[in-house]
Amino acid sequence: QVRLVESGGGLVQPGGSLRLSCAASGDIFSRYAISWYRQAPGKQRELVARITTGAWTNYADFVKGRFTISRDNAKNTVYLQMNSLKPEDTAVYSCNADGRLYYPSSPLYWGQGTQVTVSS
């Protein structure tokens, strides 16, 4: 079973930066793609960024040029660096681990989420 723990959320002013962390329970990145999602009140959850087992990255259009996803294999941690934050980035950010490429019957694993609030 994969366990994920997010951290790094908080209150930041517009234009500010935060770095979120998603710590995994073990050495999983060679078999699991990691994605960051967010969900704002009253809205559907949406994909923010993804990093594959081969370290390819992709981003939602609304964060391109502002957010960067990366990982530290030695620390079993994926990061989401968020710059130039806007009030509309306010949401609960969660990471998930998707191992279905190697384990077709594997469920998606989710962390508990971390709140990001962008406000002056």
Structural features, described:
With 120 residues, the chain is mainly beta. It has no helices and 11 strands. Strands 2, 4, 5, 6, 9, 10 and 11 form a 7-stranded mixed sheet that branches. A 4-stranded antiparallel sheet has the order 1-3-8-7, with no helix packed on it. The protein is globular, with a radius of gyration of 14 Å. The model has no long low-confidence stretch (mean pLDDT 96).
How do the strands and helices of this protein lay out in sequence?
Elements: E1 4-7, E2 10-12, E3 18-24, E4 33-39, E5 46-51, E6 57-59, E7 67-72, E8 77-82, E9 91-98, E10 109-110, E11 114-118
Parallel strand pairs: 2-11
Antiparallel strand pairs: 1-3, 3-8, 4-5, 4-9, 5-6, 7-8, 9-10, 9-11
Number of strands: 11
Number of helices: 0
The averaged pLDDT comes out at 96
Low-confidence stretches: none
Helix content: under 10%
Radius of gyration using CA atoms only? 14 Å
- Rough outline: globular
Strand content: over 45%
The span between the termini is 40 Å
Structural class by SSE content: mainly beta
Major β-sheet, in short?
A: 7 strands, mixed
H and E string? EEEEEEEEEEE
